[in-house]
Structures are given as C-alpha cells and as structure tokens.
Write a structure and sequence with these properties.
Blueprint lengths: L4 H8 L5 E5 L2 E4 L4 E4 L14 H5 L1 H4 L10 H13 L8 E3 L2 H16 L3 E5 L18 H4 L2 E4 L14 E6 L12 H14 L2 E6 L10 H5 L6 E4 L10 E5 L1 H4 L14 H16 L5 H21 L5 E5 L2 E5 L8 H7 L5 H9 L2 E2 L6 E2 L6 H15 L2
C-alpha cells in the first residue's frame, strides 16, 4: 500500500532526530552530518537555511498572522498569473498539499454537481479520506473514489459521466518518469469528452521540474491545479488555481485560520520572484544533475549486473530495486525485491539520508562533488 512509507519514516526517527539543516546537509542531535536527499520532501529546492528563508525574518517583525487579507497575497496572485496566464487570476491558499487537494476535490464536485472522483494507483495526494486506506476511513467515503491504473490505457474505459473529477500527479513520486506525456494527453482528451474536471496535483512537481511544472513539461493544461512544497519556500503552504468558470463556483468553503498567513505568503512571493528572474534556481542545472545521477548509476548497475535502476524526472529521482522495466506502481510491487531496508540503513551509516518514501530530491546545493559522493556510496552499498 502506497502510504506505508510513513511507517518507515516513523521508525527511522526513533533513533534519528534532526537538530539543524544547512545547504544540502542535515545534522542529528549527536552532531553527525548527513547528505540530505529529501530536502523537506522536495520543498527546499535552493537549500536549507538559504537567503530567502533568512529574509523572512523581516516579515516576522511585522506579524505572523492577521486572519484577514495581507499585502503579500495580492502579489503572489499576480506572480502566479505570469506562470499560468490561462487560469483565473485569484488562487485559493491554505497550509498544505493535503488541504489544497481537499479543496480542489470539493470545488470540482460543486462545479459538476457530481460526487465520484478518479484517482490513480500509486498516486499520493496527502492524508485526506478517500485518498488513503486504513483504520478510521469509512467505506462510504472510499466508495466515492475510483482507483484507476496509472500509465495504462485501461483507465480510459473506467472514466464515466458520473465522475466529477480525475486527480493525477503528472509524474508520480512513486514512479517519477518523463515518458508519460502521451498517456496524459489521452487522459486530457477523455476527460474533455465526458466533461470531467482534470486536476493536476503539482504539489511535488510544481516549480520543481520546471518553471511551469508538469503542465509545462508535458504541454498539457489541466482544469484545476494544486501547488505546495517549493511554492512555500520552506514555510507551510497549499494552493489551488484553475479555469475562471470553475473557480467562480458559488458557495464553496475554502477558509482556514492560517490560510494565506503573512509568513507563508511573504516567502511564496520571494521564491516566485526568484523563479521569474532566474535567480538562485537554475532548472537546467537541476535537470543536469538529475540526469547525471540516473545515467551514472544505471551505467554502473548494468556493468556489474546489479538488479537496480535509477528513474526520475528533472531533480526528482528514485532507485528501483529491480532491473526490469517498470511502467507504474503495480509493476514496482510485482518486480521489486521487497527487502530494501538494509540497503537504506547502510546508506544512512555512510552519511546519506533517504526519507521513508525513498524519493531523492536534489537541490541547488547538491554540487557535483556531493553528487559524486552520493553515487560512490550508493555503488558501494549495492555490492554488499
């Protein structure tokens, strides 16, 4: 089950507590330094303790919460409009990706006056009911969600006119890849035919794989889009945007005490300005080190007949514990050797921290020297 990674995370942190983070390094409570490959689950694209994060002290002095609109929110809306000129010029802000996706689903249901939501196997849309399984999630809620096969044409016959929306990560964190464009185009076409709202969950991919995220990378325009992680610049944020006719739907609740708080909006404003001007974040460099990471490791794995492969898109990567071609999470579950804990434990012992979801998020602080150190240690452990 996709959400089981948090069990690994919880167990790991019983013996590892982080005290501080600088650049691409984290330091535990005993002072040991690790190369960080999670970077706040992809949030810190510039690096920990970067100059934009430090700049936020300016806003702290002016207040951390007002519960009424603040000046920075207006500026963030204007900047987002430059990245998404085809969307409504006002966004809905909240405090997490989970909340953003919750609001997107609620809005799609209100707009279409339908209740069924399609989501894909292997996808992750946060901890909202209907997108996870387990104790405390009523069967009645799960019955309103239809699980679809990702990167598989069989899904198109499972889309029906009673569906309000389909939510999808353009490139799944559980299966990051670049060869998904044709599938996404066909999904866009099928949603149009059935008047189903297409939601792109760009919590992870937005402002990370390119300036325009997955919709730019794959040249596909969704009806609604959600952002988080990178957009917050290190502070809690969720964001929902979309087509004008959907966003103006009446009587849909979006509020929250900390939604659009001045700290998060000030930070979002600064990082969007940085992305717009091409300062501090170089997407060519991030793509280059991602390709270097994958290509170097795959050459090594093939040369020594090691049953592992590196996959990814831009600066988002993961290691597959199989040498077979994997097109989706179902294939991963089928082909991967399940005994991977020892591998990541040995990496941790060598000073490489990989989070429980086992996604490698690279940042501007991951220099070629750091990349080579990571690759060398992954190769060492792969032989043991």
């Amino acid at each position: 089950m996709h959400c089981k990674w948090y069990d690994i995370w919880r167990i790991s942190f019983k013996v590892m507590v982080i005290k501080k983070a600088i650049g691409c390094y984290i330091f535990d409570s005993r002072g040991k330094r690790y190369i960080d490959t999670t970077m706040g689950s992809g949030t810190q694209i510039i690096g920990h303790d970067n100059q934009l994060v430090r700049k936020t002290i300016n806003q702290v002095k002016k207040g951390t919460i007002y519960t009424i609109p603040n000046y920075h929110t207006k500026k963030v809306n204007k900047l987002l409009k430059k990245f998404n000129p085809h969307f409504h010029n006002e966004y809905i802000f909240c405090n997490s990706g989970t909340e953003a996706n919750m609001r997107a689903i609620r809005l799609a249901r209100a707009y279409t006056k339908r209740n069924i939501i399609g989501r894909f196997h292997g996808g992750w849309h946060g901890g909202l009911d209907g997108c996870i399984e387990g104790n405390g999630v009523p069967d009645e809620i799960n019955s309103l969600f239809r699980i679809l096969p990702y990167n598989d044409e069989k899904c198109f016959n499972m889309l029906t006119k009673d569906m309000a929306a389909v939510i999808i990560e353009p490139s799944q964190g559980s299966n990051p890849r670049t060869d998904i464009g044709e599938f996404l185009k066909n999904l866009r076409k099928r949603c149009d035919e059935l008047n189903i709202v297409l939601i792109f969950d760009e919590i992870m991919s937005g402002f990370r794989i390119s300036k325009g995220g997955g919709q730019e990378f794959f040249s596909i325009r969704p009806d609604l889009i959600t952002y988080g992680k990178v957009l917050g610049g290190g502070f809690p944020i969720g964001c929902l945007g979309g087509k004008y006719e959907i966003m103006k739907t009446d009587n849909v609740f979006f509020g929250g005490t900390f939604s659009a708080n001045p700290l998060s909006m000030y930070s979002a404003k600064n990082i969007l300005k940085s992305i717009e001007k091409g300062i501090l974040i170089d997407y060519t460099y991030l793509s280059d080190i991602g390709n270097y990471f994958r290509n170097t490791l795959n050459d090594y794995f093939k040369l020594y007949k090691i049953k592992k492969r590196a996959i990814g898109i831009g600066s988002i990567n993961r290691l597959l514990n199989t040498d077979k071609f994997v097109k989706n999470r179902k294939d991963r579950d089928k082909f991967e050797d399940k005994n991977q804990d020892e591998f990541y434990k040995k990496l941790l012992e060598r000073g490489i921290f990989v989070n429980g979801n086992r996604i490698f998020h690279l940042s501007m602080c991951h220099s070629m020297k750091v990349m080579n150190e990571m690759i060398e240690k992954i190769c060492e452990v792969s032989h043991e």
